[in-house]
Each structure stands twice: as C-alpha cells, then as structure tokens.
Design a protein that fits this description.
Shape: elongated
CATH architecture of the largest domain: Alpha-Beta Barrel
CATH superfamily of the largest domain: Aldolase class I
Strand order of the largest sheet: 1-2-3-4-5-6-7-8
Largest sheet: 8 strands, parallel, barrel
CATH topology of the largest domain: TIM Barrel
C-alpha cells in the first residue's frame, strides 16, 4: 500500500484566515488532536513572527507525541545577510524542531519585483539556506512559492529553483499554487514535467481561490506527489487552503493510500468540529465527508432507496469518517421517511401511529415548524406520540423584565423561572445579555440542582426566522437552537408570535433532549 505523508498547516497557514486567532493553549490542544489522528507533520508556526509562536515551540517539546513531527516555518536568508547571521534562520534553529520548512521564491516576477534581487542571488539564497540547515541535521522541506504561476511565466527559471533546492539537500520539494488559480489539468501536466527533473520526494501545497484545492491536490498525487499539505476544514488566507477533511478520505477510501494511523479516519469528523469550535467558527453543514448534512436525506424517493440499500445515495459509509446518516423530516416527507426516522423505536408495525406522526409533522410545519434542522424536537414528538416520553420538570411560570435607562446605556435584562421537579419547587433568577440569554441562564440555574449534567451542554447557535413577514410585528417567528455537549450536537425548534415563547419552546426541548439521552445511558448501564 502506497504511503502519502500528511503535512498539516492549520496552526500556521490556517490561522491566517480572516477572523481566526488561536491562543497558545488552542495550538497545543490542536497539536495533540492531530497527533492522535496520525498526521505525519504539524507545522507549528513562524518562530520569529510573534512571542506566541516562540512559546509554542518551547511548550511543544514537553509533549509526548506518538506519531507527528513538528515543523517550524521560515523563509530563505535575506539578500543582505549571511545565512549564519540571519535572524530568521537563527530562530528556526532555536525552535529545535526536527523539521524545518523553508519558503522560497520560484516565480521570477516575485524575485525581481518583490524581493528586488537578481535571479542568481535568489538561487544562492535558496541554496545557502537549505545546505546550512541540513548541516545542522534538520529534515528540510522546500516550499517553492508561486511555483505553478512561475512555471507558466518562466518554466526554465522555476525548474532551476527547485533543482537548486534538491542539489542543496532538501528532503522534499513542495510545489505551491500560492494564488490558488491553477486548474487540475495544468497541475497534472506541470507535475508530470517536474517529475522528470526531480528525483526525490515531491509535495503539493495549494490554495482554494478557484475552489479546486482538493481536486488539484488529488491530481498532483496521481502524478507521483507523496507529501500533501493542507489544513483541517480548509482554513486559511482568502478562500482557504486545501481541506484535509476531504483530501484524506478520498485518498484512503477511493484510492487505497495509507495516510493516517490505523482506524483513525473515524476520528475525522470529531477533529473537524474540534477545530471549528476552537477557532470559534460555525460548522459548515454542507462540508463534504464531515458536515452535519453530508449524509442527510430528505426527499421521500431518496429515503425509500436508502432504506433498501445505503449505496443508492451515499458514496461512502458515514461511519467510516466518524459521521452519521440523517433522515430529514419536512412536509415533503412520505411514509418511507417517517419509517426511516422511527426505525430505532421499532414502530414499523404500527401503521396508525406512523400515520399520526406524519400528520402531526405536516400540521406543525404548516404552522411554521421545521423539523429537518431540528431533529431533537422531532424525536421528542415521536416519543410523545408513542407514549415513550418522560417529562423531567414542569414549568410553574417565567417572567422576563427588560429595563432601559438613559440614552446610550445598555438595557438590563432579568429572567425569573419557577419550575417543579418531582414535586419540589425551585425558583431561580438570572441576568443576561438579552431576554433569551437571561431565560436560558435562569432555567439552567434552576435545574442544575436536580440534573448536574446539564452543565456540560451549551448553546452554540441561535437563529430566528420571521415566518409570515407581511403581518409585521405580529408575525410568527421560528427559533432554531443548536446545542452541544462533550459528545453530541443537536437542534430544537420553537414557533410563536412571541419571540420569547418560541425561544422558550426550543430551550426546553434542548434541555429535555439532553436529559433524555443521559437517562438512556443510565438505563443501559
């Protein structure tokens, strides 16, 4: 089985994406996750760029990594400095990483117009830097920046640069599509030519400006590239980098390459969501392989076929990448969809109940509910219809007060909730950033005494949609709440003319779903 080496640059190139900033603790946590996944190389950052990256390289030494090697990143020596006097090179050595990745110019336009040095001086900068680092017993990867654009403009010089890097001892020559505008057919042709000039290992590093980063990476592998660079979820500058969450399963499941530790592909969805959460970004639901909608089926025809054979509408098994199949419920649903959704409840024999569930879904969706994005609320509906529902608390009442002071001052919001659990009454009050936040906080505070596990759950997304906008401020609103704990993500829905009431419905469903799942675990123990 052919080995493809995975080089992750989430912590360096990925952090250059708009709105992304990893703390030192974030970088350490992601490093441990990537090592567990089985990534071969983790690019930790640019040692000379900032104190945080310097601290990272100090901290990472104490980690007992089981598989991954840490790489530091830097550029070739400056034109006016000897390699031993260049601060960038000194910082790379002081990072004490086993691997050093050096970026150098391979497009003559950049050499003369950006670096403002001669083409020959650029070659010397590449050669001096690589040979010096090799003399210091480092594994050296050379990122040929703008290689494909450079090749198209001046093929002779671009090839000359990477040949110089090879002669100087670079362990891997990495071809970079830095502007992300190259097409797959061009990648195939150019890498094929490069293969004739470079005897050692080739790598590929592409950006996604043409929405082709994954396709371009796979095309390069077909031409003999054996190191693949990318980021988790395709994070990165502008339109991002090549997404390892798509590249790796394609290589493993479609092409039969060995990329990760044994059976670690099943952790791909987990690490994708971990990086999103750490970067404080919303999940991309339609992301291939790892998105929450990647294996979601809605149309009755599709669901009917899936029930007969999963291969009819799925190109791989969702479990192979740690994801799961979803059957979406909507007014388009037929009996096949309902059957698929309630399969785990073993209700297929009860046609009257199935008909009742379908009618209830259609009636509620007519009122504005939407269950395809609120599966937790749908499961609670099924349990209520089937007589398998347990209430964990009863609402005695709630009150929300919003007090606005002087102009320019923020409003003060306070919510009071009165509930009863097994006959015991609990009253709780809390302030919040708004009425929903205050209500959520007060409800949790009231329940934590009885159900401490709800401390592990949190609200991660909150959406409001006006259903019938022509009614103006009297219009109905639909609230979708997405919640998460240490293991799962789930969504719930509420609908009302009153925003707070709709939010309350979704909040209650979210908490009851969490408690229901906890109870199931206890019952199975």
């Amino acid at each position: 089985m052919n080995k493809i080496y995975i080089y992750d640059t989430t912590l360096r190139d990925g952090s250059q994406g708009e709105g992304i900033s990893f703390s030192l603790q974030d970088k350490i946590a992601i490093t441990l996750k990537l090592d567990d996944l089985g990534v071969d190389y983790i690019e930790g950052g640019y040692p000379i760029a900032n104190p945080k990256d310097e601290s990272y390289f100090k901290e990472v030494k104490s980690l007992k990594l089981r598989h991954a090697k840490i790489a530091s990143f830097g550029s070739t020596r400056k034109a006016d400095k000897g390699v031993t006097e260049d601060k960038n090179i000194k910082a790379l050595l002081e990072a004490e990483t086993p691997v050093v990745t050096i970026v150098g110019k391979s497009w003559d336009f950049h050499v003369t117009n950006v670096l403002k040095v001669s083409l020959d001086e650029n070659l010397r900068m590449v050669a001096d830097t690589i040979s010096y680092l090799k003399s210091r017993e480092r594994e050296v990867f050379f990122d040929a920046e703008h290689f494909f654009d450079g090749y198209k403009k001046n093929q002779e010089y671009a090839i000359k640069v990477i040949k110089e890097a090879q002669l100087s001892g670079a362990d891997v020559i990495v071809l970079c599509d830095t502007n992300g505008g190259t097409l797959p057919a061009e990648i195939t042709e150019i890498v094929g030519v490069v293969r004739k000039h470079i005897q050692g290992m080739l790598g590929i590093h592409v950006h996604n400006d043409g929405d082709l980063a994954v396709a371009n990476t796979l095309a390069a592998v077909e031409q003999g590239v054996r190191q693949v660079q990318g980021t988790i979820n395709g994070l990165g500058e502008r339109c991002g980098n090549a997404d390892l969450c798509s590249i790796v399963p394609n290589l493993v499941l479609k092409k039969g390459y060995h990329c990760l530790n044994d059976n670690k592909l099943k952790k791909l969805t987990e690490i994708s969501r971990f990086v999103y959460e750490t970067a404080n970004l919303l999940f991309r639901s339609n992301q291939p392989f790892v998105g929450t909608s990647a294996f979601a089926h809605k149309g009755g025809l599709h669901v009917n076929a899936i029930q007969k054979d999963k291969d009819t509408y799925e190109h791989i098994s969702p479990e192979s990448v740690g994801n799961e199949r979803k059957i979406l419920i909507s007014e388009l649903s037929g009996s096949s969809t309902i059957l698929a959704k309630v399969e785990k409840f073993k209700l297929t024999h009860d046609t009257a109940l199935l008909k009742s569930i379908l009618e209830e879904v259609q009636n509620l969706e007519n009122e504005g509910y939407q269950f395809e994005t609120a599966e937790a609320s749908f499961e609670l509906l099924v349990r209520k219809k089937a007589g398998r529902y347990k209430t964990f608390f009863d609402l005695e009442g709630f009150r929300v007060i919003v007090e606005k002071g002087k102009s320019g001052e923020f409003p003060i919001t306070e919510a009071t909730v009165k509930i009863k659990v097994d006959g015991i009454q609990e009253l709780s009050a809390s302030e919040g950033a708004g009425p929903v936040n205050a209500l959520d906080s007060a409800l949790r505070k009231a329940l934590e005494r009885f159900y401490p596990t709800i401390k592990s759950m949190k609200l991660v997304d909150y959406k409001v949609r006006v259903i019938n906008p022509r009614k103006g401020t009297a219009a109905k609103v639909r609230v979708i709440i997405e919640s998460q704990d240490d293991e799962n993500i789930w969504s719930t829905v509420g609908v009302s003319e009153n925003l707070i009431e709709a939010s309350w419905q979704a909040l209650v469903d979210s908490i009851e779903y969490k408690l229901l799942k906890e109870q199931e675990i206890i019952d199975k123990a």
